[in-house]
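Example for reference:
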Amino acid sequence: MDLNNLIQGLISDKGSDIASSVCAQIGISPETAQSFVPAALAQFQQVLSGGQLDISSLLGGGGISQLVDQADTAGLASQFNIDESQATEGLQAIAPKFLEAIQAEGADGLLGAVTGAVSEGGGGGLLSKLGGLFKR
């Protein structure tokens, strides 16, 4: 699985629904929400390629706070002229859908997304975390 394709598929399949949810949750215009969703997903892609996530937590569904905490909320807030708290809430609204899309691909899909992200963005620390995932 290619992470870019996964994100594009998520945007085309559920982008409007996600944007509506973000719009209602953080009080931004529908137009702004339509732009916020791809920007937030790009942040998650950067976090994934940064290699600082606990992969076993992602597989178990506990990665929402990790994704949000490591995303550039200040940058998103500045880009969309909103408060950092709004940016955080928007990321929190989007993260479950992002993780669901990855998890729908199963463990192989997650590993494919991760290794694809590593090859695209460095992520040397991620490889060591992958090694830890398979230790007993």
Remarks:
- The first helix runs from residue 3 to 26.
- The chain has a mean pLDDT of 80.
- The CA atoms of residues 36 and 80 lie 7 Å apart.
- The radius of gyration is 14 Å.
